[in-house]
Amino acid sequence: MADPRPEPPLRNRAARPAGEGAAFSPLYRQIKDLLVQGLERGEWKPGELIPSEIDLAARFQVSQGTVRKAVDELAAEHLLLRRQGKGTFVATHHEARVRYRFLRLAADVEGESGRAESRILECRRQSAPAEIARALELRTGETVVMIRRQLSMNHRPTVIDDIWLPGPVFRGLTLEVLKANKAPLYGLFETEFGVSMVRADEKLRAVEAPAEIAGLLGVTPGSPLLQVDRVSYTYGDRPVEIRRGLYLTDHYHYRNNLN
Q1: Residue 102's pLDDT band (boundaries 50, 70, 90)?
Q2: What is the pLDDT of residues 111-163, one digit of tens each?
Q3: Which H or E element spans position 191?
Q4: Which of 158, 161, 235, 242 is nearest to 198 (CA)?
Q5: By the 8 A CB rule, do 150 and 247 touch?
Q6: Nearest 5°: phi and psi at 134?
Q7: Residues 247, 223: contact at Cβ < 8 Å?
Q8: Where are the alpha helices (DSSP H) in 42-81?
Q9: Which of 230, 172, 228 is nearest to 197 (CA)?
């Protein structure tokens, strides 16, 4: 339950004398930051209803319109979900609208994507290679969990993902746990390890299929693939996943919406 005590009024904190060098932050952005801090602390869990805009306005001693603008931005960023007539909820990767928002693969023929089927091929703990440690902000040699997953579309292997996760955060994640899991992978991370993936940075390039990957995708070594390198972040811009995906794009393409 949310702490009913109001935060100190923000209006007195928003503006500082120019000599202090503080950049001006609109009031709704300050409210947005406080809401994100509440999400990061676990004040409202994934899937839970957050307080109404009226209650939040009273808590932060600002107008309802200011709160609405902050909530609108968080909804646009998929951190919150509005449900008509029910309220606003913390986004969860178990929710259909959120589940595949990081999967940008689409069929060339609209409506033929079919259902994505995930198969875990490997899971092991290992010392972090220097590049992975650096990206996850770990010490070189610190433990990571490495997962290899095959994703099939319409029963055809289409993506091979190599995933690295910080070992201390994902204690207890094993091949047996992954194979028994029926939820989306990010849903498992959220429910069992308290890690919500809230944003990701990606780099794309064309590559030739290595022999091992070609065998898993059923193509000839050297066939063209799309390589997608992703760093996923939880609250506080903390990196918690490195992922390299190799995509077969003879019947699919990588789609993105630029706003």
Answers
A1: low
A2: 655 677 899 999 999 999 999 999 999 998 899 999 999 999 888 999 999 99
A3: helix 185-193
A4: 235
A5: no
A6: -65, -45
A7: no
A8: 53-60, 64-76
A9: 230
Number of H helices, E strands in the chain: 9, 10
Q: Give the CA angle between residues 184, 136, 195 to the nearest 5°.
A: 35
Q: What is the largest CA-CA distance in the chain?
A: 65
With both helix axes pointing from N to C terminus, report the angle between 64-76 and 27-41 in degrees, rounded to the nearest 10: 60
Residue 168 contacts residue 201 (beta carbons within 8 Å): no
Q: Are 239 and 137 in contact (CB under 8 A)?
A: yes
pTM of the model: 0.77
User: Can you name the residues that pair with 112 across neighbouring β-strands?
Assistant: none
Residues 6+ apart with CB under 8 A from 52: 87
pLDDT value for 76: 86
